[in-house]
Design a protein that fits this description.
Elements lengths: L1 E3 L6 E3 L5 H12 L11 H9 L16 H7 L5 H13 L5 H7 L7 H11 L2 H5 L3 H5 L6 H10 L3 H13 L30 H10 L4
Antiparallel strand pairs: 1-2
Helix pairs in contact: 1-2, 5-6
Length: 212
């Protein structure tokens, strides 16, 4: 059955084991804004879920152990294509930690919030140990989001997920790349076409110089 979330207009499926939810969570995890696993789309994820290879986000990092089985099943194509996708998965282990947070499907936490969290706490262990008051100290984290984050990191299945990421070698420490504070206290809205930068490059430039 579907349930209404608090006093909001949101109505959600109450089944956490729902196949469609799992596929959506996995798609968010591998997306460009999160782990950026290019080529790992809905067809592959759906097939891997249906055949029992994926039942959680951390299962993605166990696929390499099943390489020969995957090739035999042909789920990811032939040997060359399978190895290409497994290499992309392996490369994703070294992305900035904020991407891991953005991909975890924490309620109310998107890319911007994930960046703020990692800039403040610097590593996932510190974030997991943060109290709701610690989270509220951040400018762009409100009470609802703080509770969502705190509750998320105190669920056993999510603690197990973090431990699995550690065991797989996924980076959980933020990159320190602030180049200055010229834009400190300033917030930018980037729109349209820029003459020398893409919007993502412009956003990265602003953030490395202290702006939002």
């Amino acid at each position: 059955p579907t349930i209404q979330i608090g006093d909001s207009a949101d109505i959600k499926c109450s089944n956490e084991a729902c196949r469609s939810k799992l596929v959506k969570r996995l798609l968010n995890f591998v997306s460009r804004d999160a782990m950026n696993m290019k080529g790992f789309g809905v067809e592959y994820i759906s097939a891997l879920v249906d055949r029992g290879y994926l039942s959680s986000m951390e299962d993605i990092y166990l696929l390499a152990e099943k390489r020969d089985e995957l090739i035999a099943d042909g789920l990811l194509g032939k040997e060359k294509n399978t190895d290409k996708l497994l290499a992309i998965i392996n490369e994703s282990k070294s992305v900035d930690a904020y991407r891991v947070i953005a991909g975890m499907n924490i309620p109310n936490v998107g890319v911007s919030s994930a960046k703020s969290l990692m800039q403040h706490f610097l590593n996932v262990d510190a974030l997991m140990n943060a109290s709701e008051d610690d989270l509220l100290a951040l400018d762009d984290i409100g009470e609802v989001t703080a509770k969502s984050i705190y509750d998320f990191f105190h669920k056993e299945e999510n603690i197990l997920m973090i431990n699995a990421f550690k065991a797989a070698g996924v980076n959980l420490i933020a990159e320190q790349h602030v180049s200055g504070d010229q834009f400190a206290g300033m917030t930018f809205c980037i729109t349209g076409t820029l003459p020398t930068l893409g919007r993502k490059e412009a956003a990265d430039f602003i953030e490395t110089h202290g702006g939002k």
